[in-house]
Amino acid sequence: MPIKLFRLNNVPDDEAEEVRELLAANKIDFYETSSGIWGISVAAIWLRDEDQYQRAQSLIDEYQNERLAKAREEYIHLQETGKSRTIFDVIRENPVRFVVYLAAISAVIYFSTKPFIDIGR
Predict the structure, then answer these.
(1) What is the C-alpha to C-alpha distance for residues 60 and 6, in angstroms, rounded to an integer?
(2) Relative to the CA of 84, which of 54, 75, 99, 111 has its CA 20 to 30 Å away?
(3) Distance between CA atoms of 33 and 116, rounded to whole angstroms?
(4) Whether residues 120 and 67 fall in one domain
(5) Pairwise CA distance, residues 94 & 99, whole Å
(6) Per-residue CA distances from 104 to 86, 98, 111 (Å)
């Protein structure tokens, strides 16, 4: 009976490809399902043989730990060199989006609190 090994929803393409390559290199029999036309199905990598589950899961866990360590090292390096993105960099890159979001947030807060402020009058 097939068993779900790895969900692909919101997984970067490079990570999904590396997982596929890892499984293929270790001769683990798997197949893949997509999220479908409407995006509501389960996009995942499935194992055909349940007996390979423990081995495949340990390979993926090891891969993800290595990927996490690499991402942390990169983040620390960017912080040390002063190249990590800050909130001000994000605002500077797209100020119009920032103003629109700020206006939307302000409108939600205003309309959420106005009835309660009017009660006191």
Answers:
(1) 8
(2) 99
(3) 50
(4) no
(5) 9
(6) 22, 10, 11
Same domain flag for 20 and 66 = yes
Whichever domain contains 69, its CATH number is: 3.30.70.1530
- Cα dihedral 2, 7, 9, 12 sign: negative
Mark whether 5 and 56 lie in a shared domain: yes
Note down pLDDT in tens along the chain; length 121 residues: 889 999 999 899 999 999 999 999 999 999 999 988 888 889 999 999 999 999 999 999 999 999 999 999 999 999 899 888 889 999 999 999 999 999 999 999 999 999 888 887 7
The beta strand positions in 8-109, using DSSP E, are: 30-33, 44-47
pTM: 0.69
